[in-house]
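Standup notes
- DV: blocked on the single-chain target, sequence here:
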Amino acid sequence: MLALAASLALATSAAAEKVNEYHAVVKLVEQHYHVKHKGIPFLATAAMKTARVVSSDVRKYAHFAGFKLAIFEDQAFDGDHTTFHAAMRRTLEPAWSPLVVVRGAGEGQTYTYVREDNGKFKVLICVIGGRDGTVLQVELKEEEFIKLLMNPEQESKEIADAASHQSSDDDRD
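- DV (later): unblocked, structure below
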């Protein structure tokens, strides 16, 4: 009975860790770079979900499920990017697999991690530029995930841009 309780506790804590990995990355960005994120307001999130069902203009975003987004605007991302990358790896691996890591002096940083979850594909993207950043977690349908695999760097940026753009549009309404 004690062994069953211990294994149940381990499974529960493992499930909690999976749920909190997005939040752990947001917190990592905040602590490492001494910045603060802006989330999507509750009403904007509800409006976006409603728009997915109603609006044909928004249907192109319908492949996003389990959508979580933190935006860092007009903040300085000064710091050791190598240390940040190592911390990202410690936070996400081995549960998540790195798909693409781009660290360029002028382009900033893009980290894309993936994990299969019950036949769906969860993607966590962290983009850090000179003054702005985004942490996004989405669940992709198989066809969208295949597009991501075909051109991971470009598709990672497009997914992050589309999510940020959709969030900005919702904030203005």
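- Follow-up: The chain has one domain: 20-172.
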